[in-house]
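Chain A, query sequence.
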Amino acid sequence: MATSGGRKRLIQPTILNQAGTSQTLSQEDIQVADNGKRHIVIGIAFHNVLLPKMKGYVDFKIEKHYKQLVNKYNIDDSKKFKRPPAEHFSPRNKDLQDPNYSVKSHHELAKLYLEPHMTKFTKITDESFDSSAVLNVMSNASCFSKKENNQAAEIRRIIRNEWAHFNESTWSDSYYLKCFQLMENMVEMMPKPEDVKNLFDKDQIKQKLYKWRIDGLKLMERNVDPDIISTVLDECRKLIKSVSSEIESVQEIRVVMDALNCSLKTLELNQQELKEDQEQLKEEHLLIKDIQGQHTTRLQTLENEFPKPQNAFFDIPNRNQFFTGRIKILKSLTSQLNSSNKMITISGLGGVGKTSVALETCWAMKEQFPGGIYWLTADTGGGDIALKSSLFSLARRMNQIDPSIDDSKLVDLVTSFLVGRERCLLVIDNLDEEEFTPMVNKLVNGRWIGESKTSIVVTSRLKPDNLKESLTFSPLKTHELESFSLEEGTEFLRKRTELNFDKIDAEGIVFELGGLPLALDQASAYLKVSKGSLTLYLKRLKAEKLKLLSRKKARSPTEEVDATRLAVSTTWSLNMSAIKEQCPEAKEVMYALAYLSPRGIPRTIINSGSPTLRNETLSETLMDDFDVTDIILV
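Chain A, predicted structure.
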């Protein structure tokens, strides 16, 4: 096993085959799909960390609830029993609502909040009082707050049920983070320990959940700490023992455990080889240390004279091979970035091609940023889940993930890395929410921008004026992107479909779709697959536009773009919602203008009209010239 230099090499992973002999495993043999690992970690965090504390909390609350019902309504005595009002007592178990029935313990009371098939336990603290029962009691019993009811129902739907009926495609990076967020929110809702006889320590539960979240991310790395694998396997054994009677996914867990066991044995064998290597290296190290000491002073002098260059970090999506036109805005963006402008925005309606323009700019200027180019997706709906996932992925590729860092420090983790870099570029894609969350605000308005050599490009559906109000860094350069011209749209169709066609038909399709790149991409996808005639397609497009466009989704410019952004119907629905939110009257005016030709609508046609409009608010708005201007701007 020795090499020509006397140094031992690491052994390859092995396992005994059916004949009892050793065989070498490929990397693929010992790897487990990341989604399977996330599924296991969520199961451990939920069943082994959170659930036992929730069970104790349910036992405490139901017992207290039972004593109150006994004292006030005699529910333990069928002769004296008085039916409590619904807000105090609303059982769901129809089989146990006999008028002569008396509730003899708080364990029996818990059963009244469950379906009959869930009532096979004797005590709440029994193992047979499973996760489904715990969550159902919490979501149904009136002794818990409405927030607790709703949170328990969400955890049952999103974590417990999805986990029990394993579907590998569900367990993505963002779903993994969402599950931990739900569990952490539940811990926050639970009362202070002193209010429940110190049944649990909230800070300790949060620390354990956080550690599992970080260890789960590390489990997805190429080189995994053996201690993490051992811990996961130990917790898996506990998990299978406690849940085997209530879930269908035990077999999938065993498959993942087998693969992790194989990886662990390989690591242990390699560690033994490394120990032997270390003894040899110690001797070599002493020799090197003596030589190093002689040259330290000279080396330090040289390093001061010639600073060590940084490796460029180019972390953006693949280049769009069908990118077309946009010469004017690309020239402007390039010029502004070369002039070291700190903050530049690209605005426009959904589907107009903002992401593609930003991406093409990055590729065109790859050599201009020695500190690297970085990409974040900022879809900020749902509690910053997309942004957190994007920050986690970027931090992981920067090798910046630290077990002591929580969500609130994610922005600090990434921006502190950027502050120490040479000139670099950060793209923040899809920053569409007008009200910035604290995390977004720290990212786009933080002091770190002025302290770094980072330029920032933001893409957004917000109007330039709205962005100027929200982004505090000055000077701010804004661009508003419009649809393709006839020439650009025709050229895009030619590139995207790879078909020979009549220019007049192509221009007709571009005109019908208003030059919108997203719509043209959907049309191209359909034409390329169907190999159909542009003349026929144009004719059908005029008759049934949305139906035809729904046949094929557009091509995603980046991996992190939400699938709903790839269809014209949903994109325009989001655009209309944004317009309604900014100015409800603008939506009504748009409905009216839809009956007119889109070319050359005179401004004077937007007025209160005669006879007077039934909508009094709209009528008053259209009488005011300033309000009409606002509508046109929206």
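Confidence is low (pLDDT under 50) at residues 1-31, 561-567. DSSP finds 25 helices and eight strands in the chain.
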